[in-house]
Amino acid sequence: MTAPVAGADPAIVGPYLARVLSDEGWTEATISLISGGKSNLTYRVDSPTGSLVLRRPPLGQILPTAHDMGREFRVMSGLQSTAVPVPKMLHFCADADLLGQPFYVMERVEGHIVTTEFPAGYASTPADKGLISNGLLDALASLHIVDYRSVGLGEFGRPDGYLARQVSRWSKQWDATRIGDMEFVDELAASLTASLPTTHRSSIVHGDFRLDNTMLHPTRPGRINAVLDWEMSTLGDPLADLGILLVYWIQADDHDLRTGGSVVPAVTMLPGFLTRDEVAAGYAARTGADISELPWYLAFGFFKLAVVCAGIVMRAQLGAMVGSGFEGFAERIPPLIELGRATLADRKLY
Asked: Is 347 left (phi over 0), alpha (psi -120 to 50) or beta?
């Protein structure tokens, strides 16, 4: 008998998949947690039929509107016919009684998710890192030029007022996960609200676009096999995606404050990766976007990531996550907020 897995018991998942996917082979499913996620839980499901991936929210109590599995399933389903690389969606289960929360399953895409380092022998040259930089920009630009109405996502969000709602939403998230005496978080939120830029165009927004939320082709550096983790996606200002990408984009010459705010190990420090200025210019060249207000979006990204860190701390304390690697996130909040403040004040891509 296959051992139970927290959040995705194969004794429950297997028979359910056999029924909804019309293949009895799934009855013999084995399930393993895929490490790396700090929010939703991702599992690999194997059976004599093949393999797929299951996504569900964290265990226990979650914040309202967060971890919306239906949202992830809907946007990736809509993008199937576009140039944006996404896995094939297989089934969405809205019945929270089955696993305690809604979940979905999708095809398992082959490739590399890069966190702390590249696999041995993969992308070993600076030229390869340049290809990966440009591959990420190609994928992001492809997303932002999708006609969202033509793919059935015209009601996926409300583009008007997106930035103001985002600052308000993440301020409320901070209120729900507030840690200690950190009024400087509220001060940055107030500064962002007071300096909202004008949105010039609207698109599908991923919400957390970064290197380790993509699946790199197993043998061809520069080709993105899939963009993953769409839980924050909506319709809004596409420069928010560029801002959050730059938040995670650490350079080799960055100062201690910038590296102290790093949440994801930054392979972008390796020779060959574009600089933040080059990333911004490359995006503008691909999309024709006016990036003169980009420092605001970067500052907002620092603020949002600080609030995400607070949420990780809360979920870890409540025992809502499975796996390891949830230490030290409270200490990352002050440098992230200081980076946001400096970016707004100096209008540089820190």
From this structure: left
